[in-house]
């Protein structure tokens, strides 16, 4: 191992997405640099130039000896950083630590760990450096490559919304609500065959979610009793819910009680396959579209270390 490689092992490699959120990035970056320097946090930095550039940047950083990565951006940036770590073959993924400085629109992953949506406070948390090993999900679709996720993935209505959101995000957090409600008027439910453990469920389904963490869709809570390192997905099968059910229960969507609705079933499992009939619904992972149609999700227990509050 060269001197250069050893030297980098203790410092942070920052991957920053200058397009995330709706704020003035260069102003934010100046503030971040200052706060990191004040806390004597040693770092190198690379800015993403296009989506999925995170994957390349993470791979290079790991080859150069970095083991600590800071993701600056939203859930999408973090998702691609996680994918970069899971796809590389240089070190054990659990030897890598990720911290987040949030700049995104939704920022759902940080909510599970009570990391505030605030640059200064998130840097204090990095300075404290409390970490946990978290589970990561692996998704196999008809596409040849595997996608990984660190928060919540699913297919059906959630995938439809993510697709819609791509054109609405510039409107900020309200975009989630607008996409959610307008989608209900147009989204066509499909029959899903859902297979896990010794079960086979065939049902008309709004969506099926695979949860590691608690929040998705900009603060909605669809997963029950999450434990981010128990080696199990928290599965949510939202069956024949309609526009009325969702609007009537809007409070429960945000406080987590929606999982007790009679049209929703929840399970814990390590592996699950969902096969949609007829239609080809979008599959989303951490709010990123990764494919359509049939999907298998497998949990990888305690795969990456994360800085938490
Ligand atoms: N330089 C870039 N130009 C365009 N897209 C980029 C760039 N860098 C990263 N991306 C992509 O932008 C997408 C959105 O980023 P991200 O999700 O972090 O921000 P956001 O949408 O504002 O936040 P959130 O997902 O938390 O609502 C991700 O798919 C990411 O890979």
UniProtKB/TrEMBL annotation:
Gene Ontology MF term list: ATP binding; kinase activity; metal ion binding
Alphabetized UniProt keyword annotations: ATP-binding, Kinase, Lipid biosynthesis, Lipid metabolism, Magnesium, Metal-binding, Nucleotide-binding, Phospholipid biosynthesis, Phospholipid metabolism, Transferase
GO cellular component term of the entry, any: plasma membrane
Domain (DAGKc) ranges: 7-143
Domain of life: Bacteria
Family annotation (Gene3D superfamilies): 2.60.200.40, Probable inorganic polyphosphate/atp-NAD kinase, domain 1
UniProt keyword ATP-binding, yes or no: yes
Cofactor(s) annotated in UniProt: Mg(2+)
Record SMART domains: DAGKc
Pfam families, per database record: DAGK_cat, YegS_C
Transmembrane segments: none
Protein name from the UniProt record: Diacylglycerol kinase
InterPro entries: ATP-NAD_kinase_N, Diacylglycerol/lipid_kinase, Diacylglycerol_kinase_cat_dom, Lipid_Phosphate_FormReg, NAD/diacylglycerol_kinase_sf, YegS/DAGK_C
Swiss-Prot/TrEMBL GO biological process terms: phospholipid biosynthetic process
């Amino acid at each position: 191992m060269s001197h250069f490689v050893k030297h980098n092992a203790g410092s942070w490699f920052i991957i920053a997405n200058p397009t995330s959120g709706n704020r003035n990035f260069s102003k934010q970056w100046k503030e971040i640099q200052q706060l990191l320097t004040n806390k004597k946090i040693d770092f190198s930095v690379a800015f993403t130039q296009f989506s999925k550039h995170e994957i390349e940047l993470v791979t290079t950083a790991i080859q150069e000896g970095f083991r600590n990565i800071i993701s600056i951006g939203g859930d999408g940036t973090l998702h691609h950083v996680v994918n970069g770590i899971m796809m590389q073959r240089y070190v054990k993924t659990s030897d890598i630590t990720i911290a987040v400085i949030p700049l995104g629109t939704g920022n759902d992953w940080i909510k599970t760990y009570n990391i505030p949506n605030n640059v200064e406070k998130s840097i204090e948390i990095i300075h404290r450096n409390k970490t946990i090993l978290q589970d990561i999900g692996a998704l196999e679709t008809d596409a040849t490559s595997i996608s990984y996720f660190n928060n919540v993935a699913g297919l059906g209505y959630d995938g439809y919304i993510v697709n819609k959101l791509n054109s609405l995000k510039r409107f900020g957090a309200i975009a989630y609500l607008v996409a959610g409600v307008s989608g209900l008027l147009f989204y066509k439910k499909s029959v899903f065959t859902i297979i896990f453990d010794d079960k086979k469920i065939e049902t008309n389904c709004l969506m099926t979610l695979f949860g590691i963490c608690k929040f998705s869709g900009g603060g909605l809570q669809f997963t029950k009793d999450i434990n981010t390192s128990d080696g199990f997905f928290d599965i949510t099968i939202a069956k024949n819910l309609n526009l009325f059910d969702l609007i009537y229960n809007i409070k429960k969507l945000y406080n987590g009680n929606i999982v007790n609705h009679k049209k929703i079933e929840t399970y814990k499992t390590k592996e699950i396959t969902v096969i949609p009939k007829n239609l080809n619904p979008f599959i989303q992972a951490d709010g990123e579209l990764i494919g359509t149609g049939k999907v298998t999700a497998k949990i990888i227990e305690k795969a990456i270390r994360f800085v938490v509050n």
